[in-house]
Amino acid sequence: MSFMKKSPWIIHYDGSSCNGCDIEVLACLTPLYDIERFGIVNTGNPKHADVFLLTGSVNAQNLPVIRQIYSQMPEPKVVVAVGICANSGGIFRECYNILGGADKAVPVDVYVPGCAARPEAIIDGVVRALDILEEKRRALKEGREDELEDRDSLPLLPGEEEAP
């Protein structure tokens, strides 16, 4: 760990879900689980966030929102997909408007399984994301930005073209 480091800040976004995982994310903030003991702060501004916590599946309507939040986050950043819907589309995967899991919109660093994901699993996923965030910080500090660019490129959907 470096000598001086800020607390990791999380931004949470709910895609198309049943809100079960969102309730469990809120449970992480209660005194029983107390995710803030790790110095983690929940924010509503992507420009302050280090960790992007996504619940629910991706559809055509929330795809641009997810990508906009991700693009507004400063480097280095990590994405945590919480619950089976964010992992693969879940029970909604076969719906006409569902594109799939979070990895259809942004590069995902940590997948947290469950339907709904338990608070312990969510906290474990966030702690794993903090290790990845530290690794990305080290890569930026050492001038290895090319490693991050390969990892952080946005996935293309059918019919999309790569930006020039």
Report what the structure shows.
- The protein is α/β, with parallel strands linked by helices and 164 residues long.
- It is 33% helix and 16% strand.
- It has 5 helices and 7 strands; from the N terminus they run βαβββαβαββαα.
- The strands form 2 sheets. Strands 2-1-3-5-7 form a 5-stranded parallel β-sheet, with helices on both faces.
- α1 links the parallel β1 and β2 (41-42).
- It is globular, with a radius of gyration of 15 Å.
- The N and C termini lie far apart (38 Å).
- The mean pLDDT is 86.
Number of individual domains: 1
Please identify, by name, the CATH architecture.
3-Layer(aba) Sandwich
- Total number of β-strand segments? 7
What is the rounded distance between the termini?
38 Å
Q: How confident overall, as mean pLDDT?
A: 86
Round the Cα radius of gyration to an integer and report it.
15 Å
Low-pLDDT stretches are none
Topology:
Layout: E1 9-14, H1 20-27, E2 41-42, E3 51-55, E4 58-59, H2 63-72, E5 78-82, H3 83-88, E6 98-100, E7 110-112, H4 119-141, H5 145-151
Parallel strand pairs: 1-2, 1-3, 3-5, 5-7
Antiparallel strand pairs: 4-6
Provide key terms for this protein.
164 residues; two-stranded antiparallel sheet; Rossmann fold; 33% helix; alpha/beta; 5-stranded parallel β-sheet
